Amino acid sequence: xxSSESGAHPRxxxxxxxxxxGELHAEIRRFPDATRTAAEAAExxxxxxxxxxxxxxxAADNVPVLVLMxxxxxxxxxxxxxxxxxxxxxxxxxxxxxxxxxxxxxxVPPFGHRTQTRVLADRSLLDHDTVWAAAGTPHTVFPMxxxxxxxxxxxxxxxxxxxST
Length: 165
Fold this sequence. Notes:
By secondary structure, the chain is α/β, with parallel strands linked by helices. The protein contains 6 helices and 8 strands. 27% of the residues lie in helices and 24% in strands.
């Protein structure tokens, strides 16, 4: 199946092939409405919000870093800062996200990016057998077991989600 048939972004489709994950093309789901937010994606898929894997770009001392987080949680930037030993961590602006990953916000997949970045994966993703992540567009998602997803992303397991009080 080609990227145009699966709906995956061409860069992400090529990354699947390079990683030996071509069979995933058949599992990519395309939705007529955008699944730009975790809540929209969970509703469209029919899964729990926490089964969505958000791919979020932050700037740690102006260096992009990817944080993979479950859809029901928020990233604690102070914990990210501590994890990276950075002076300052902020949410990356849209142009930095596109420049770093090659994708627009709302469609950033966990791997297959334009540049190599440091990847932090929150341990909460391991609470599920399957998580769903963007396939390079705001309309496409794919399922994967979280350990495999984190391995392909080159992620380091960390605890960086905001703790509920």
